Structures are given as structure tokens and as C-alpha cells.
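Posting this for the archive.
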Amino acid sequence: MAHQPQPYPLNAEAVRTWSSLALAALGRAREDIDAINVYPVADADTGTNLYLTAESADRELGDLLAGVTDDTAAASLPEAVRAFAHGALIGARGNSGTILAQLLRGVADVLGEEPDGPAGAEGRDPARLLAQALTRAAEEAYRAVAHPVEGTMLTVATAAARAAETAAGAVGTAADVAGAAYDGARAALAETPGQLAALGRAGVVDAGGCGLVAVLGALWQALSGREPAPEPVRGRAVPVPQPAEPCAEEEQHGGPAYEVIYLLEAAETEVDRLRTRLDALGDSLVVVGGDGLWNVHVHVDDPGAAVEAAVVAGRPYRIRITHFGDERRRARGERSQRAVVAVVQGEGLAGLCGEAGATTLLARPGEPPAVAELADAIREAHAREVVLLPNGAELRAVAAAAARQARAEGVRVAVIPTRSEVQGLAALAVHDPEGTFDEDVVAMTAAAGATRYGELAIAERQSFTSAGICQAGDVLGLIDGDVAVIGTGLAETAEAVLARMLGSGGELVTLVLGPEVPDALAERLEAYVQHGHLAVDTVTYQGGRWSAPLLIGVE
């Protein structure tokens, strides 16, 4: 008779093993899960999103354990499981990855408690504890989804939790509970085509549920020492429909055109209001997290509005805006011919550039992106040709290094030396993806070069400038990167800058307002331009958090 391995304890080392095994299992199943992804959007990225989410969770957990000691046993179960869940939260990708992050948070809500007494978390009944954790996970995931749908990974999570509770009631071990959850999940997954019409028509099981089964199989393996039998992804791969015409992609998709994801630091009361705002803007809304940090996922037609709603609620960052047309090309294994990658400082500007079709990389003040970040953004654009807009003189070397790295990977890259976001907007306005690469680059470079740029900033200390000595708190008016005006008020300084910039002519003034600047300033400046320069048009945008108090472009 074969030796039955002893079950492993439910401790930090088990969580580390679970994380490693889950990542490996999702890596093996990644392409198969992508291939059966037909709901909520047939963009063939569910396996990839789950893998990247698990990778972030595994990295955070590994960093914690490396920081504690080389011996994982020295870390507590609550510490390990909280790090595991936090890593998933900050790295969650897509609808499925966001739900997985909330499932892990639910597990951490139970296993991450620090009870009184010397025995700690490991001193509680591990079977009952794990069953409670899986139940809390399913409950939290349902609450995180604005409009839960049966036949998805939510259904699979609930079935797993129900089976786990039954096993715990039979006085089993934690390994028995994990095994029951795994079996319950597999059985529920097989039923999903009969619960969700989109799956039934395609003849596939739910892709997110399939990934969750892999994660639960890894949990069982970590606690039992037994490897789940290889199980092929059930169902057939369904090719993503080819649109009749490129311009008809949104109609073929039949839903919102953009996916917006960001991390948000906000109070829970503000997040409740945000849910209401985003629910009115689009669909597939999932908000996960807690304790002041949230991961927000939504599909919308107006990504700028989704970002602006976040700015009202709190402090959003790591903003990712993806056009589903680009995702469907990736699903077919295609690269788009050309893409634009823009570095922007300002959340409103990120939304604006995203609407214009650019892949955006949001930079915080004083935290310019590294070469690796910019190179990753070029990869995410998934194009044969990339036009790179650094939008900052200090980023020239970084952009050049990222471009060299991308060229070594076979991507044709041109860096347009834009030194301000307003120059980047001018370049995007003439971007022609249907023209030749060289013609497009020349036109965008010419538009950027023909745009003079100004900026208002607040002096932090007394210093010498090209316009004289400024004091802390003075308003500095910069033109083409040099201080040209020193003033005491935003409006007066902005008018002085505009007067100098328009002195040499212009046809269009672009104003980008920072988050603390009142709309009245824009109205005053528009009136100033209209009164003194009748033939000059003015457009105004909201730069959002992290943008300068005022950016000015004159073309």
C-alpha cells in the first residue's frame, strides 16, 4: 500500500508554498485559460491577468519573508497571509485578477487575525479556521462586484467554501478542508456553461473559475503534499471574432471601449460614493480592498470621467487605461502596426491621452519613471512601431535608453523630444496611424516643435532665476523651461506669461489647470486671450492631481 504523506501545518511556510505552487499552476494553464476567455469580454487575457496578479502576490510575500529571516518558520501565519493578500491587491490585473485579490483578502481577514495567547493564529483549529477563511473570501468577493453573475468564478468560490465548511464539520484536517474545497470548485466549474449563456454558446467553462480551481489545487497540494492530477482546461478555444472593419470594433464588442484600473487611497465612505458614480459610467465594476487602500476596476467609454471620479474620492495612482480594440488584437496574437506611448504628470492628462489612443505612463512629481518602467510601457503597447512622447526635458536620456531596449526586441521606436505635456498633446492631435511611420513621426515632431510651452510653479525657497531673485511662495512663470516672470498671484503671472508667449504670434492656446486652480482662472485667461487676440482660439483641460498649477501651450 502506498505511503500516505502527512499533512503539513497551516503556517507561514504553507502560505509560501501555496503561493509558489499557485503561480506555477497559473503559469502552466495561462494560455489555455486565455483561450477560453469569453466573459465578460472576449479579450483572451484572463489567464494572463490571474498569473500577473499571483506574481505580484508571490513577490510581496517573498519580500516579507526575506526581510524577516531566511527561515520562513520565523514569520507568523497572519504576517504571511496579509502580505500575500496585499501583494495581490496592489498588482491585480483585469476583472478576474481583481476578484482573486479580494478572495485572498477574505482569506487574510480570518487567517490574518492576531488572537491573544501564546499559541497565536496557529493555535486555533486549522480545519475550522481554513473553512471560515474560504467562506469569508467568497462573501467578500460577492460584495466587491457591483452586479454579481452566476456561472463565474464567484459561483466557483461559493461552491468551494460550502464544501470546505462541510469537511470542517466532519472533524477533518486543514488538508481535508482544502481538498474538499478543490473538489467542490471543480464540480462547480463543470456546471458554469449551463449557468451563463455566453459560456454555453461558446462551449467553454468560465475562465476565471478555471484559474481559481488551479489556485485551490495549489492550496491542497501545499497542505497535503499531494500533487493534483493534471487536468486539461475543459472546453474548446474560441477565436475572437474578427471585426468587419477596423472602425467597427466598438460595435463588435457591444460594450464599453475601455478598461480602467487604478489603486486608490480613500476612506470607505468615499469609496461607497465612488461605486455609485462608476456604476453609472460603465459596467464590470469591481472595487476590492479596505483599510484605506482599494483596487478599482471598471469598463467605461469615458476613461477620463472614471479617473476624475477617483480624484474626487481620494488619491488614485498606478492608473492603467486599456482600449479593448488593442486587447482583441493581442487575443488574436496580433501586434498593432503603431502605438503612441506618453509619459504624463497629472491624472486628468493621463485620461486625456488615453482617450486619444496613447498608452500612458503616469509620473508623480519628483518621481520620474525608470528605464524599465518605460520599456514595460512600450511592451504593453504591443505594436511593431512606437512613437514615444517623454514630455519632459529631464526624461530624454531615460526615453533614449528605453527605446534602445525596445529596438533590441524588434520594435521600431522613435522618440519625439517633447519637453511638456502640451507639446505631447499637440503631437497627438496630428498623429496619423494610417500614414507611414516616417511621415507620422515628422508631422508629430513638427507639431510639438511648433508649440511653445509655459508653466506656472510656486517657488519653494529663495533662489536666483533668469528673471531675478524669487522668494519662497512667489509664483514663477516659465517659458520654454526658463523663468521669465516672477509674480505674487496666479492670474497676474499667467497673463504676463501669455502676453510674452503670444507676442510672437499664435493660433491656439491650450490651458491645462492643476487640481487646486479654480475654474475662474481659466475663464479669466480665456477672456484675456479673446480680448487681445481675436484670431486665437483657446481650449482648456483639467490636468488632475499631480499636474502643475497651470500649463500653457501656444501653437
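The radius of gyration is 26 Å. The first strand starts at residue 258 and ends at 265.
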